[in-house]
Amino acid sequence: MNIKEKLLEDLKEAMKAKDTLRKDLLQIVRAAVLQIEKDQQVTLEESGVFEILAKEYKKRSETVQELAGSDRTDIIEKNQAEMALIEAYLPAQLSEAQIEELVRAAIAKANAHSARDMGAVMKVLMPDVKGKADGKLVNTIVKRLLG
Q: Which stretches within the chain are classed as H helix?
C-alpha cells in the first residue's frame, strides 16, 4: 500500500471513528496532494507526498514556536497533536551524522572545493535527503563542510 492509499484508508477510518482532529488533518493533506496533482497535471510519487507532509509539519511547528509563551495553549496543543499524527506518516528522519556522511559523498561527487560550489553539491544531495531531513540542517552542514 503506497502512502496515498494509506492516507485515504486512514481518512475513512477516522471518519468512522468520528476522530475529527485526524479526519481534518488527513483531509488537508489529501487536498494538498490532489491540488498539486491537478495544477501540475502529474501523479505525485511517494517523495512528493512526503514533501507535502513535511511542509504541513513545518507549518505547525512554526505556529507552535510563534505561540510559545502565549496563553493560547489550546492552539499549541492542537498543533502538537497534528504534528504527532503527521510524524507517523513521514519516513524516519536522518541523523546529523548520516546527513554529514551524505554531504561528504555529494561534495566528492560534485568535486566541490569552496562555498561557490554549494549549488552543485545541493543538486547532487537533495534527491537523497528530500523528505528525510530538514533543509536548513542540510544547508548548515554543507556550508560548514565547504567553509
A: 3-17, 20-40, 46-67, 73-87, 96-110, 118-129, 135-146
Indicate which CATH number applies to the domain containing 61. 1.10.1510.10
Taking the whole predicted model, whether its pTM rises above 0.85 is answered as no
DSSP secondary structure code for residue 1 in this structure: -
pLDDT tens digit string along 29-62? 999 999 999 999 999 888 888 889 988 998 999 9
Domain that holds residue 126: 96-146
> Is 74 in contact with 14 (CB distance < 8 Å)?
no
Residue 53's CB is within 10 A of a number of other CB atoms, namely 22
132-139 LR contacts (CB < 8 Å, sep 24+): 132/50, 132/91, 132/92, 132/93, 132/94, 133/93, 133/94, 133/99, 134/93, 137/96, 137/99, 138/99, 138/103
Residues 61 and 113 occupy one common structural domain? no
Match 512528493 to its residue by C-alpha cell: 48
**CA–CA separation, 21 vs 62, rounded Å?**
19
Residue 114 phi, psi (nearest 5): -145, 180
11 and 52 inside one domain: yes
Residue 125's identity, in one-letter code, is: L
